[in-house]
C-alpha cells in the first residue's frame, strides 16, 4: 500500500515526519501527504474523511497551509455520528476563526446540534461556539444558549455559561437576556457550574449598569454566604489544592464581590466581615493561599472605605515583600503603588521593607521599588530616604545607577527643605554618579547656587574638595569649574565661612592648577574644556598675578583641531593681551538667574531664550539661555557668561577694537555743523564716502550704511543704543526710517476668570506680517493675598507657534496685576482660529495652587 495514501494512519504520518532529518525532507513528506488528502477530497471519500482532517490539523500545527480542507470540517459537522462531529468541530476551532466567511455556513449545523438529544453532541457545539463565535452567530444562537443554562446536566450548564460569556463580549446588548439565568447559577452546588456562573455574572456587571444594580440587591448576601461556606468547609479531596478548598472559586467570588462593592457603601458593609476572615485565616505559605490573599487585598482596596480592613490589606502586602518568591514581591509592589492613593500612611509604615527591595538583585523589583519609594517621599521623610538612596548609590550596579540617580535628583530638587541641604546632596550624587546626571539637573544646580549668595563660598570650597577625589565624574568637573571661575576669590580668601565647615588653604596658583588639570584630563570632553577656558579668563581678571600663566595655558589650545577650542583660545588670548581695559567688564560675576523662568523652560512652556532681535539664542556652557550680548563685544565673539549690558562707554569699545580715536575735535569756523567726528572716521575707515550734513531730528540713520546726499547720518550720541550698535553688522544697504504701523485693532478679551484670578488679553498686529499677533496678558489678583512663584504656561496646536517672554514679576501683589507678553504665529491664518491651553501655578502662604483652562474666544481674523 502506498505509505502516503488516504489509508495511511495519522500515527504513520507523524512517524514519517519526525524521521525527517532535514527541513527539505519534512516538506517533501508534507507535500506528498497533502496531495493524497486533496485526491481523497476530490473523490469524496467518506470513509477516510475524518482521518484526512486529523492529518490536516497536525499539518496545520506544523505551520503549513491547510485552507483547502476547511470545507471538510463542515461536511464532518453535518455527519450524524459523534466521532465525525468531534473531529469536525475540532477542525473547525483549529483551522477557522471568526473572520472566515465560510463560518456563516456552519450556523445552521450549530443550531441543530444545540438542540440535539445527545448531550455530548450539544457539548461539542457549545465548545465550538464558545471558541469561534462571531457577532452574527451570537445574535442567531443566543436563545439556544440561554435555554441550555437551565439544562439538567451540570457539564452542559457549565459550557453554556462559558459560551454566554463569549456572546456577551461580542454583543453586549444581549446581556439583559442572561441576567436571570446567570443569577440562578449562583445557587449551584456543583463547583464547576458555580465558578462559570460567577464569571458570567462578573462579565454582565461590566457591560450593564442595570444588571450591576440587580446583582447588588439580589445576590450580594448569597455570594457572601457562599464564600463563607467555602472558606470554612472541611477538607475535600475533590477540590483541595495545597490544603485550600477550591482556590479558583475563592478568587472568582472575590472578583465579583469587588465589582459589586465598588462605589456602593451598603454592599461593601455586607462583605466586610467575610473579607476580614479570608484575609486573616488564609495560609500564606503556599502559592494558592497567596493568590487568594492578593485577590482579597485587591477587593478590600476597591470597595468603599473601611480603615481597619485597608490597614490589614496593606500589612498583607508588607508580608509579601518579605517573601522569597520574586513574583510575589513584584505584585506586592505593584499593589502598594495603587494603594498609595487610598491610604498613604499605612504604606509609609512599610517604607524600610520597600527600601530593602530597592537593593534587591532582581532588576524588575529594583525599578518597581524605586518608583514606589519616589512616590512615598514627602517633606517629612526626604532626608532619611535621600540618605539611604545615596548610600546605596555607591554600591549599586552600573545598569541601575542611571535610574537611581535620576530619581534621587528629582527627590532632592522637589522636596529640599533648604538650599544648603540641596547643594550637599547634589554634590554627593555628582561625586558618586556624575556621569549619569542629566544636563538639565546640573544646570538647575547652578541656578540654585547663583540664587544663594551666602553659600557661594561654602559651595566652591565643597566642590574644590570633591574635585580632588572624583575627577572622573564629568558633570562634577563642569559644575566645579563653573563655580571656581565665578567665585575663585571666595575660594582663595575663605570668604563666607560657615560654622559647620573647616577652613582650607587654597592659593591662587592652586585654583589655576585645578582648571588646568580639567583641560588636560583624558576624560574631559569639548564642553568641559571650553568651560575651563572661560574659567581661566575669569581667573585672570580675579588674580592679575596669574595672568601670564593663564595666558600660557589658554595659548596651548591655539592649534587645537577642535574649532570651538581653537577659536576661544585665540579670542581669550587677544582679550588678555590687547584689551585689558574691557576684560574686567567682560568677566564680571554672573547675575542671579531667575529660578521661576528656568523652571518654566525646563517644563517646556517658555522658549529657549527671550530674544528681541529675532536671532537664535546663544548656547552657553552652563545651560541657561540668555539675551544676546552687546553687539560690539560680539564682534570678536567674546560671549562670556557675564557680558555687560551696553552703556555709554560703547565709544571706548570702538576705540579699543578698531584702534581709532573717537574724541570730538573742535568745530572749524565757517564750516557747516557736521555730525560727530567719530562717525567721519568710521565712514572714512570703510571708504564709504563723505558724510552728508545732519538734518534736525534725524536719529535713525544706519551707522555704516551708504548714504545719499539727502539721507541723514546719525550722530554719535545715538550710537550708544544697542539697536544702533547692531547695525554695525547689518550690511551696507540703505535703511530708511520706518514708521510703525500697528495694523487693525482687535478687542480685548477675558481669557480666564476664577474667584481668585482674572486674565485679560490685549492684541496688536503688524500690517506687514498678518500671521503674527502680539498679545499682552494682564494677570489680575482678585484676592487680598500675595501670589508668589507665579508661573504662566501655555500650549498651542502644531499649526501655531508660541513665543513667551518672561512676566514682569514672579510675584503677583494683593489686588494688583502683572503683565506678560507673548507672540503667536498662525500658519493657517484665515483658515483656522487661534486656540490655547493655559496653566497658571502660584503659591498662597506656601501652598501650591494650580489653575487650568482652554481659551477659545480669540477674536476672529487673528
Helical content (DSSP H or I, runs of 4+): 40-55%
Q: Between the first and last Cα atoms, what is the distance in angstroms?
A: 88 Å
Largest sheet, spatial ordering of strands: 3-4-5-8-7
Mean pLDDT: 80
Q: Compute the number of helices.
A: 36
> In what range is the share of β-strand residues?
5-15%
User: What is the total tally of β strands?
Assistant: 10
Rg, rounded, reads 40 Å
- Unreliable parts: 1-6, 605-741
Largest sheet composition:
5 strands, antiparallel
What's the quaternary structure here? single chain
Structural class: alpha+beta
* Basic shape: elongated
GO cellular component, one term: AP-1 adaptor complex
Membrane topology: Peripheral membrane protein
Main location: membrane
Keywords: Cytoplasmic vesicle, Golgi apparatus, Membrane, Protein transport, Transport
Fold and architecture overview:
The N and C termini lie far apart (88 Å). The protein has a 5-stranded antiparallel sheet, with no helix packed on it. It has 36 helices and 10 strands. Helix 1 runs antiparallel to helix 2, helix 3 runs parallel beside helix 5 and helix 28 runs antiparallel to helix 29. With 862 residues, it is an alpha+beta fold. Among the domains are: 188 residues, no CATH class; 110 residues, Gamma-adaptin ear (GAE) domain (Immunoglobulin-like), CATH 2.60.40. A hairpin with a 6-residue loop joins strand 4 and strand 5. The longest helix has 24 residues.
Amino acid at each position: 500500500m502506498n505509505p502516503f495514501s488516504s489509508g495511511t494512519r495519522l500515527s504513520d504520518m507523524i512517524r514519517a515526519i519526525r524521521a525527517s532529518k532535514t527541513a527539505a525532507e519534512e516538506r517533501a513528506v508534507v507535500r506528498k501527504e497533502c496531495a493524497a488528502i486533496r485526491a481523497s477530497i476530490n473523490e469524496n471519500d467518506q470513509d477516510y474523511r475524518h482521518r484526512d482532517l486529523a492529518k490536516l490539523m497536525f499539518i496545520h500545527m506544523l505551520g503549513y497551509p491547510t485552507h483547502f480542507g476547511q470545507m471538510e470540517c463542515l461536511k464532518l459537522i453535518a455527519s450524524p455520528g459523534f466521532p465525525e462531529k468531534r473531529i469536525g468541530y475540532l477542525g473547525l476551532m483549529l483551522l477557522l476563526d471568526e473572520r472566515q466567511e465560510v463560518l456563516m455556513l456552519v450556523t445552521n449545523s450549530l443550531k441543530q446540534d444545540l438542540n440535539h438529544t445527545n448531550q455530548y453532541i450539544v457539548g461539542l457545539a457549545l465548545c465550538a461556539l464558545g471558541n469561534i463565535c462571531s457577532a452574527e452567530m451570537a445574535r442567531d444562537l443566543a436563545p439556544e444558549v440561554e435555554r441550555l443554562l437551565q439544562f439538567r446536566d451540570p457539564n452542559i450548564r457549565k459550557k453554556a455559561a462559558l459560551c454566554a460569556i463569549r456572546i456577551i463580549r461580542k454583543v453586549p446588548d444581549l446581556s439583559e437576556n442572561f441576567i436571570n439565568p446567570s443569577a440562578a447559577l449562583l445557587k449551584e452546588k456543583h463547583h464547576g457550574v458555580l465558578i462559570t456562573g460567577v464569571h458570567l455574572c462578573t462579565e454582565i456587571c461590566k457591560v450593564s449598569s442595570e444588571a450591576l444594580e440587580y446583582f447588588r440587591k439580589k445576590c450580594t448576601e448569597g455570594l457572601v454566604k457562599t464564600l463563607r461556606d467555602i472558606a470554612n468547609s472541611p477538607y475535600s479531596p475533590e477540590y483541595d489544592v495545597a490544603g485550600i478548598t477550591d482556590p479558583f472559586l475563592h478568587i472568582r467570588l472575590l472578583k465579583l464581590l469587588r465589582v459589586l462593592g465598588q462605589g456602593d457603601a451598603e454592599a461593601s458593609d455586607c462583605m466586610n466581615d467575610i473579607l476580614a476572615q479570608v484575609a486573616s485565616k488564609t495560609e500564606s505559605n503556599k502559592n494558592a493561599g497567596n493568590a487568594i490573599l492578593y485577590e482579597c487585598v485587591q477587593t478590600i482596596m476597591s470597595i468603599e472605605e473601611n480603615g481597619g480592613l485597608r490597614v490589614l490589606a496593606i500589612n498583607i502586602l508588607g508580608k509579601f515583600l518579605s517573601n522569597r518568591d520574586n513574583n510575589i514581591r513584584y505584585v506586592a509592589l505593584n499593589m502598594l503603588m495603587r494603594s498609595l492613593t487610598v491610604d498613604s500612611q499605612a504604606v509609609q509604615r512599610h517604607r524600610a521593607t520597600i527600601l530593602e527591595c530597592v537593593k534587591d538583585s532582581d532588576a524588575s523589583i529594583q525599578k518597581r521599588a524605586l518608583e514606589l519609594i519616589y512616590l512615598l517621599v514627602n517633606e517629612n521623610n526626604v532626608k532619611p530616604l535621600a540618605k539611604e538612596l545615596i548610600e546605596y548609590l555607591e554600591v549599586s550596579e552600573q545598569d541601575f545607577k542611571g535610574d537611581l540617580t535620576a530619581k534621587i535628583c528629582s527627590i532632592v530638587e522637589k522636596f529640599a527643605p533648604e538650599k544648603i541641604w540641596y547643594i550637599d546632596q547634589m554634590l554627593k550624587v555628582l561625586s558618586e554618579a556624575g556621569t549619569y546626571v542629566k544636563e538639565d539637573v546640573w544646570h538647575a544646580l547652578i541656578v540654585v547656587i547663583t540664587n544663594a549668595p551666602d553659600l557661594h563660598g561654602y559651595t566652591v570650597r565643597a566642590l574644590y574638595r570633591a574635585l580632588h577625589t572624583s575627577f572622573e565624574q564629568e558633570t562634577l568637573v563642569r559644575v566645579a569649574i563653573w563655580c571656581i571661575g565665578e567665585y575663585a576669590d571666595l575660594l582663595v580668601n575663605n570668604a563666607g565661612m560657615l560654622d559647620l565647615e573647616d577652613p582650607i588653604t587654597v592659593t591662587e596658583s592652586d585654583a589655576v592648577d585645578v582648571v588646568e588639570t580639567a583641560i588636560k584630563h583624558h576624560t574631559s570632553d569639548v564642553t568641559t574644556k571650553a568651560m575651563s577656558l572661560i574659567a581661566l579668563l575669569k581667573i585672570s581678571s580675579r588674580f592679575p598675578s596669574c595672568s601670564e600663566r593663564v595666558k600660557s595655558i589658554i595659548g596651548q589650545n591655539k592649534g587645537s583641531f577642535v574649532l570651538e577650542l581653537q577659536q576661544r583660545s585665540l579670542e581669550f588670548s587677544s582679550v588678555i593681551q590687547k584689551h585689558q581695559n574691557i576684560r574686567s567688564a567682560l568677566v564680571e560675576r554672573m547675575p542671579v538667574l531667575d529660578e521661576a523662568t528656568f523652571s518654566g523652560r525646563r517644563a517646556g512652556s517658555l522658549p529657549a531664550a527671550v530674544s528681541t532681535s529675532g536671532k537664535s539664542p546663544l548656547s552657553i556652557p552652563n545651560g541657561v539661555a540668555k539675551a544676546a550680548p552687546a553687539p560690539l563685544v560680539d564682534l570678536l565673539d567674546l560671549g562670556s557668561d557675564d557680558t555687560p549690558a551696553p552703556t555709554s562707554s560703547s565709544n571706548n569699545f570702538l576705540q579699543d577694537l578698531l584702534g581709532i580715536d573717537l574724541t570730538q575735535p573742535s568745530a572749524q569756523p565757517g564750516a557747516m555743523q557736521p555730525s560727530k567726528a567719530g562717525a567721519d572716521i568710521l565712514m572714512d575707515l570703510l571708504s564709504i564716502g563723505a558724510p552728508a550734513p545732519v538734518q534736525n531730528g534725524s536719529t535713525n540713520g544706519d551707522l555704516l550704511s551708504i548714504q545719499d546726499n539727502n539721507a541723514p547720518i546719525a550722530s554719535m550720541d545715538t550710537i550708544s543704543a544697542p539697536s544702533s550698535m547692531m547695525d554695525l553688522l547689518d550690511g551696507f544697504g540703505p535703511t530708511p526710517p520706518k514708521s510703525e504701523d500697528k495694523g487693525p485693532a482687535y478687542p480685548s478679551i477675558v481669557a480666564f476668570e476664577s474667584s481668585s484670578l482674572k486674565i485679560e488679553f490685549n492684541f496688536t498686529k503688524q500690517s506687514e506680517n498678518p500671521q503674527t499677533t502680539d498679545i499682552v496678558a494682564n494677570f489680575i489678583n482678585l484676592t487680598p493675598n500675595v501670589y508668589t512663584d507665579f508661573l504662566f504656561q501655555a500650549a498651542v496646536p502644531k499649526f501655531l507657534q508660541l513665543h513667551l517672554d518672561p512676566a514682569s514679576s514672579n510675584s503677583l501683589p494683593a489686588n494688583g496685576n502683572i503683565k506678560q507678553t507673548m507672540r503667536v504665529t498662525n500658519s493657517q491664518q484665515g483658515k483656522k482660529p487661534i486656540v490655547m491651553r493655559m496653566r497658571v501655578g502660584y503659591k498662597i502662604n506656601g501652598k501650591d495652587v494650580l489653575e487650568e483652562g482652554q481659551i477659545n474666544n480669540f477674536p476672529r481674523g487673528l
